[in-house]
Amino acid sequence: MKSGYIGAAVNRVDGYLKVRGEAKYAAEYQAEQLCYGVVVSSSIAKGKIKTLDASKALALDGVLQVFSHENRTSLPWFDRSYKDEDQPPGSPFRPFYSNEIQFNMQPIALVVAESFELARYAATLIDVEYKAVDFNADFLNSQEKAYEAKKGKSGWKPPKSRGNASKALKHADVLVEATYFHPAEHHNPLELHASTVVVEADDTFTVYDKTQGVFNSQQYLMNIFGLSKAEVHVKAPYIGGAFGSGLRPQYQLFMAFMAAKALKRSVRVVLTRQQMFSFGHRPMTTQQLSLAASSKGKLVGIKHEAIAETSQFEEYTENVVNWSGMLYDCPDVDLSYKLLKLDTYTPLDMRAPGGATGVYAFEAAIDELACKAGVDPLQFRLLNYAEQEQNEKLPFSSKELKACYAIAADKFGWARRNPIPGQLREGDNLLGVGMATGVWEAQQQQVMAKAKLSPDGQLVVSCGTADIGTGTYTVMSQIAAETLGLPIEDVSFLLGDSDLPMAPLQGGSWTASSVGPAVLSVCEGLKEKLLKEAAGLPHSGFKGAKVEEVLFKDGMLCLKGDPSVQLSIAALMKQRNLAILEHQTASMPDPKQSQYGKYTHSAVFVEVKVDAELGNVQVSRVVVAVAAGRILNPKTARSQVLGGVVWGISMALEEESVMDKQYGRFINHDLAEYHVAVNADVHDIEVIFVEEEDDVINPLGVKGLGEIGIVGVPAAISNAIYNATGKRLRALPFTLDKLLE
Amino acid sequence: MNRITYSKATDVRDAIQEHSKTDKAQYIAGGTNLLDLMKVNVMRPAHLVDINKIGFDFIEQEADGGLRLGASVTNADTAYHQHVQQHYPLLAEAMLSAASAQLRNMATNGGNIMQRTRCYYFYDTSTACNKREPGSGCSAINGYNRMHAILGTSADCIAVHPSDMAVALRALDAVVCVEGPSGKREIPMEAFHRLPEDKPDQDNTLAADEVITSIKLPPSKYAKHYSYLKLRDRPSYAFALVSVAAALNLDEQQHVLEASIALGGVAHKPWRMPEAEALLIGKPATAANFRMAADMLLSTAQGYGHNNFKIELARRAIVRALEQAVNKQATL
Ligand SMILES: Cc1cc2nc3c(=O)[nH]c(=O)nc-3n(C[C@H](O)[C@H](O)[C@H](O)COP(=O)(O)OP(=O)(O)OC[C@H]3O[C@@H](n4cnc5c(N)ncnc54)[C@H](O)[C@@H]3O)c2cc1C
Ligand code: SF4
């Protein structure tokens, strides 16, 4: 009955375009008389610009303008005009608004010239005199200034405590108290942030932006520059990775647009790699954990307090400690989440924001507790398995975590683990194994989609969502092809265009689970329409048939009960004289979802080799089992999880944006010194998808896979390092110096 | 515009002459370091003299049994050269530990030993750096100095030289052959790179307009017991935190006849200490003796906070590298 696309390992439909270089990115669009903007960044962290002298730059032939606070076009006064869909509470940064410097590398001028080279040279001629004032960028030495977060950005849940954790901790048999730290990290997608703003003949603007949400960029520009929807058209059909960095409109968009509007010329602005360290990042966070268990390994008390950095002007929040309350069965839980304001830019969601870090500390502490109680860490997790979501006391919509544990442990050979650390040696290396649980929310958002069928059987489905490399194009084509029984070659899916039906930002692992149902629904709607048309044809045999009674296959409609009654879509549309058959729907979460805890789970098992003398760590083997509902495409799904695991290795061993306290500036701001995992870091990784049925989560039963892959990996690595060496490392990244003692 | 003139030199005299035209000239070879530095405005030459085609793209054997490496030969071609692999495996190993395959295909031998420090501040023109801008101060001494030097530092600069190749060349007693307006001369590796002292802007002792034409390796001594051990924050495509080029000659009783130990990642130049090597001569090749040599080599080492770990790391790395050198045959 199925065409078999859903669940099949279909190759990426955009794969050829990408490998041939035919997929165009924001900085690759050409326009007549295109000019080029180069951003000048502040070299101080806080203070005021006394003078900004652009005369030398402006004197050059071919330099069109230098924009700054001194000559900017008029801008709105109120914060609300600068808001965006992913904005934390506070006062969003306004480029060029005044001479005030709020963070180091703040963009202070845009030099626009006839060529990129000229603009880049002219940017070096801008003389800036500052009045610098004292600033604070020292996170670890100002922890006492942290305060309890009261409000947060959308999706943030104030942590809920329960019972009396202090009492439970006091009387417990086994107690672990430890502080964990992770540094700031930057997304560093390969594609630099860029915007090309094209001024059209009718004075409207077409904007090619690197964004995870075209509507977000569009609305932002409309609000700030006082334009109507018809005047600003934003496109982002391809994105060279984003990982959260494209969730908020970045300043190159504002600048390119202001310049294009003022100069009435098309403008392109591309940030430098160094400038990629000038905006959002994963916030430095310290986490204090106290965990208690009975001598038999029953969790009796959890205390988890996090302090995370934010900027002076916005309160960026993420769910760091909440996981500790929901993950295991434990009566007494005390959670707290604090913010600490620094003179830096506001942090920004980065793959599994809050989860990658909160679960890291919690799952590392759970390992410490299990080892101290003398219970096998996997056994410990089974002993405390939560049959109910613990923060809200709701049933899970589905939770095949036990199966994840069992299958992954078996594949990995967990049973052979030596519980005594430091026992296994292979040449210069100590070997160790560790495991951790991963978890992420499964959500559905409201999405609209449109489908258009033409008489030749070509189907175009569209939705203004994004594909940041995740495979959206492919899985949506699969859903549409299967639902309407068409060959996938006849289906195209359009996205990344603000003229298309509304979709939220691509983030939170909710694209497959939100856009997927919309595509399903719009194709179902089209089926109804086709059947209605067929029923209307005299003697077609479809009269009175219900849609469930009709098979849609190979471009045909066919009565299940009487296969001789059949009709091709082409013939039907021709006979009904239809040039096009169109349908649009909105799909939204069923209200009953709120009665359930909805999560994706994983079990991560890791083997490490640690040089006993020299301290370097190698992650030699990873087995991860994921329960994420229905898997739409095992190939793209596996890639998502692989990418997440590799990033987990990178986060555990290498990534760190170093804040220089003298300058208040991230100082290792290039890819030579900001280390991300390379091929040599990656050894055996096995990804297993565990079967999981879920009829609550959405009509397709899919959960997202965007974030789950990274969650749990750093904890499993830290736990394996302990098993190998007997050392507990509590500050990421685990570089060799930390293992020298 | 930042106008740059470019000339493709046809021979070495032409190169020197082109370079002498202005004091803002730079030789360009593979460009893998120079172009990066130009893009971040750290080096701002007005005239580029391309020296890839001036006749130094050869590797040839010398009458004395040594080997001459042309300055324009790429790092990849040098490291994979049969004679280098057979007779100077320490050099091949060091070179292949550097950068990435793509970079090694572009980078040249002359450019490699001329590459500049990777100090974060040197690369960032909005910070103070005596090497980039003499007299402006050193941001690393009180800043983030994880990658910085523990030996031979000065109050003006604590940068390290980042080359792996240079460390092996130093261990092998190579000689740098240069040519300038006043003729040819030879500079032993020992005297090629310098310590920062009060002139950190000068990386080496090359005189104005001089060009490296080749690098001379003395007849091979250490093709049997050698090891290049590179410790870094990522297993590939990262600079050394500490590296050790270790080479030994052993008699049948595993006593040390000759030893050479050069350290990378610890100083403004590849670091050697003859006294520490002499300590091993005549002694059995044991870890305990290696540790003594290591202690001596590091006796004057000083950390600056973030790089304190390098002292202990270097100590252990020296011992490991010497052990690996002893056991090299077994692992081959
Ligand atoms: C990301 C990255 C990682 C790297 N990792 C490593 C590593 O791990 N280990 C390592 O050793 N190196 C590493 N490198 C550095 C690389 O080895 C050097 O960039 C390369 O060797 C320089 O050679 P080149 O021919 O490209 O020099 P160029 O960039 O052309 O020149 C560099 C300098 O040398 C001068 N010069 C060049 N040739 C001569 C000559 N014949 N005579 C006089 N002056 C000359 C130039 O004027 C210039 O100042 C890395 C580089 C990058 C970008
Ligand atoms: S260590 Fe040397 S290169 Fe680095 S900032 Fe100091 S002076 Fe500059």
Automatic annotation (TrEMBL), chain A:
Coiled coil: none annotated. It comes from the Bacteria. One of its GO terms (molecular function) is iron ion binding. Residues 20-134 form the Aldehyde oxidase/xanthine dehydrogenase a/b hammerhead domain. InterPro entries: Ald_Oxase/Xan_DH_a/b, Ald_Oxase/Xan_DH_a/b_sf, Ald_Oxase/xanthine_DH-like, AldOxase/xan_DH_MoCoBD1, AldOxase/xan_DH_MoCoBD2, AldOxase/xan_DH_Mopterin-bd_sf. This is Aldehyde oxidase. It comes from Pedobacter quisquiliarum.
UniProtKB/TrEMBL annotation, chain B:
SMART domains: CO_deh_flav_C (SM01092). Keywords: FAD, Flavoprotein. One of its GO terms (molecular function) is oxidoreductase activity. It comes from the Bacteria. Residues 1-222 form the FAD-binding PCMH-type domain. PROSITE patterns: FAD_PCMH (PS51387). This is FAD-binding molybdopterin dehydrogenase. It comes from Pedobacter quisquiliarum.
